[in-house]
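Example S7 (structure tokens).
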């Protein structure tokens, strides 16, 4: 019988029909996925939100109530999710597979009627990335021919956690032993000398076994594309008690200074194979004889020249690093140990290594000299190529040379190094503080420089003198700059002196005539007191060892006279003749006697002469120097000419005489009144045109009367001293004709009739007596 307590089968049928005929046309509808992302290789349970209508299952032959069947399919990207559960009309649950590839994936929900809803890019798989390979298990040991315990190799992410690979990845596993064999765990029958294991996407590691018939410590290595290789040691042997320590891994070539090299020290038993270490361990002491060498166990550890540590457990092989920063042909390493259980010493081991310099990292420049560095004077330098640890490297090739700051005249520009060494002579052209720089033209940042060097000027090679801007004025100082330069134009620093001379200038007109001792340059106030149309100053100088080795000459320039200070009137050396012009040179001069160029109106004067007794009295427009035609009309024994223009004056220093001119006439002296019978005195004087007595005249004259009468004597004796006196002169044939106020006395030179003088005689009947 059917239970009365359960629902009516028809009701259940109607319920199933109602659920399966849901009028909502938009189901299924996917709206959200949570979480939105997961890491690759890890299954993730997802909650899908939206609208979902399930199928209802009714068993008409059963009293059981209707059930909801999960008829939904969920696909994430290319793969199908599993464990899909219907939670409610608003939610589904599904698990994303661990093999889902990294990236953004569409999520699609499909119901039993084939209707689907897709949410693009709703779920992201993040690849943590494979960072490295690791041996997860510790070092293994085994007897010859036996398998070791399982050895696991895993992929790890940057945080050190296992990292499933997103792509198929091949692991290569090898041994340094020719007799070693590998097998995957559980596949011992397929042992191989080298093993390649392919990890499928989602896998993170592999378990393997190793066996070897050769006793010893064997190194296992594993690698995969783009990952650093890894290594681990396996000990194979009888594993007897320890008897010796040995360096079992040494470099086959010389070490490079500064670069660590891997070494291995093994603890061995009496068979030469790996030893079984006591529980208390083996104390191992490692030493190097090099003061620049050091040992370290792990990369990043500090390096020590003396290293002591304890090996315990299965750690019978010690990989270590050795680094030496000094290049040397031989350095010794020693390993010794003792059994901490028995306190027995183990057989030690000593090996030698060679250390060669590292790559060239810099150049060392050294100056070989110690004296002052001079421009233009070659200086010896050496260049050595060094590694980062100051070991000389065997560099062969070009080195470019320069200076800092730049010296455009520096040489040489490059040299060739042979076996890391070269010497060269350098020349500098500038006076400055400078460093010599060496660079490898083919390798960036390989360079070197000297300390700062003070470059002084070279020995003086030439003198230079500043131009004189002319014209200059006599007596006015002007500046003259003298420089002593080396052959490259730098001011020399050697003390020297120079002498000065001026062309065409009288001695004493130039000052100074020596520069005095100076270094580099000197500015002199120079004075020329002689005016010249063109001159130049020549300087000759040198050092104590070469006193006249250098010279320089200014360009030509004029020296003008100064203002007129006085007049110079040239002396008249000879006696002049009255009325005859003669030249007198007059100069206007400055303080130093140079003829000036000022224009003057000169006033002339002569000592003992009136203005009308000489000519000219003035010389207008006088400039510099002139020869004045001077005429003196008065004969006198001593006079001198003086000139003046304003307050400026000058005169002859000496005197000169003026003689009378030639006889021009005779000057008679007669009584003021004469009677026909009277005897009277007649005085005659020979004079020139200007009435100067001509004392040199010694001739005779004729006497006559006009218009009547005669005179006695009618001829005179010779003149003496230019004069003649006739004490008794009488007249004839004049009686009865008086008075006659102007009876002419005609006086004629017997030699030259042109010398005739007429003098009136006052002829009276009687003359008053003179009181």
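Recovered sequence:
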């Amino acid at each position: 019988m059917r239970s009365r307590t359960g629902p009516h089968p028809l009701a259940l049928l109607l319920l199933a029909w109602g659920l399966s005929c849901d009028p909502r046309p938009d189901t299924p509808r996917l709206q959200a996925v949570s979480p939105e992302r997961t890491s690759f290789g890890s299954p993730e349970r997802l909650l899908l939100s939206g609208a979902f209508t399930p199928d209802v299952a009714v068993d008409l032959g059963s009293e059981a109530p209707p059930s909801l069947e999960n008829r939904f399919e969920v696909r994430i990207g290319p793969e199908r999710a599993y464990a899909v559960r219907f939670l409610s009309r608003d939610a589904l649950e599904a698990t994303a597979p661990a093999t889902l590839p990294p990236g953004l994936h569409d999520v699609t929900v499909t119901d039993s009627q084939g209707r689907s809803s897709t949410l693009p890019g709703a779920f992201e798989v993040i690849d943590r990335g494979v960072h490295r390979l690791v041996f997860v298990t510790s070092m293994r040991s085994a007897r010859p021919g036996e398998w070791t315990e399982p050895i696991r190799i895993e992929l790890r992410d940057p945080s050190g956690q296992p990292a499933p690979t997103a792509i198929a990845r091949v692991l290569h596993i090898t041994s340094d032993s020719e007799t070693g064999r590998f097998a995957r765990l559980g596949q011992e029958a397929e042992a191989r000398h080298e093993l390649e294991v392919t990890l499928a996407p989602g896998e993170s590691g592999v378990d393997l076994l190793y066996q070897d018939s050769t006793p010893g410590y064997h190194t296992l290595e594993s690698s995969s594309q783009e990952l650093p290789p890894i290594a681990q040691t396996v000990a194979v042997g009888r594993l007897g008690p320890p008897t010796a320590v040995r360096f079992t891994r040494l470099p086959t070539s010389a070490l490079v200074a500064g670069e660590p090299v891997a070494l291995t020290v093994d603890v061995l038993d009496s068979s030469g194979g790996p030893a079984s270490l006591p529980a208390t361990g083996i104390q191992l002491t490692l030493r190097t004889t090099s003061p620049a060498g050091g040992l370290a166990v792990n990369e990043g550890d500090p390096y020590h020249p003396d290293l002591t540590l304890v090996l315990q457990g299965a750690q019978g092989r010690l990989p270590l690093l050795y680094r030496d920063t000094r290049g040397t042909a031989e350095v010794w390493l020693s390993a010794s140990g003792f059994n901490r259980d028995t306190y027995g010493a183990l057989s030690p081991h000593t090996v030698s290594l060679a250390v060669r310099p590292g790559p060239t990292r810099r150049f060392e420049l050294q100056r070989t000299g110690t004296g002052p560095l001079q421009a233009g004077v070659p200086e010896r330098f050496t260049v050595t190529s060094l590694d980062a640890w100051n070991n000389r490297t065997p560099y062969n090739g070009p080195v470019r040379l320069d200076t800092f700051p730049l010296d455009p005249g520096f040489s040489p520009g490059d040299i060739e190094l042979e076996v890391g060494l070269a010497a060269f002579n350098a020349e500098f052209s500038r006076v400055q503080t400078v460093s010599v720089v060496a660079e490898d033209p083919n390798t960036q940042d390989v360079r070197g420089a000297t300390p700062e060097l003070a470059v002084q000027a070279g020995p003086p090679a030439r003198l230079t003198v500043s131009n004189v801007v002319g014209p200059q004025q006599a007596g006015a100082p002007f500046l003259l700059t003298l420089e002593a330069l080396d052959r490259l134009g730098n001011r020399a620093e050697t003390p020297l002196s120079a002498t000065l001379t001026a062309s065409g200038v009288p001695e004493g007109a130039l000052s100074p005539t020596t520069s005095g001792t100076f270094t580099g340059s000197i500015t002199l106030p120079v004075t020329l007191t002689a005016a010249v149309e063109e001159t130049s100053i020549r300087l000759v100088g040198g050092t104590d060892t070469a006193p006249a080795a250098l010279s320089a000459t200014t360009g030509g320039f004029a020296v003008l006279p100064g203002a007129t200070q006085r007049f110079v009137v040239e002396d008249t050396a000879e006696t002049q003749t009255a009325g005859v012009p003669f030249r007198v040179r007059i100069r206007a001069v400055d303080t130093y006697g140079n003829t000036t160029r000022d224009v003057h109106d000169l006033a002339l004067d002569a000592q003992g002469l009136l203005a009308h007794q000489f000519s000219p009295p003035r010389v207008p427009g006088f400039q510099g120097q002139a020869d004045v035609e001077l005429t003196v009309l008065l004969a006198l024994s001593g006079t001198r000419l003086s000139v003046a223009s304003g307050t400026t004056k000058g005169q002859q220093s000496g005197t000169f005489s003026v003689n009378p001119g030639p006889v021009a006439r005779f000057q008679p002296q007669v009584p003021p009144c004469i009677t026909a019978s009277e005897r009277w005195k007649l005085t005659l004087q020979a004079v020139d045109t200007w009435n100067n007595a001509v004392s040199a005249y010694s001739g005779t004259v004729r006497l006559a009367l006009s218009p009547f009468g005669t005179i006695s004597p009618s001829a005179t004796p010779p003149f003496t001293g230019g004069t003649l006196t006739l004490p008794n002169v009488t007249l004839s044939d004049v009686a009865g004709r008086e008075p006659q106020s102007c009876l002419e006395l005609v006086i004629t030179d017997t030699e030259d009739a042109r010398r005739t003088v007429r003098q009136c005689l006052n002829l009276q009947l009687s003359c008053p007596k003179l009181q």
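Notes on this example. Confidence is low (pLDDT under 50) at residues 1-24.
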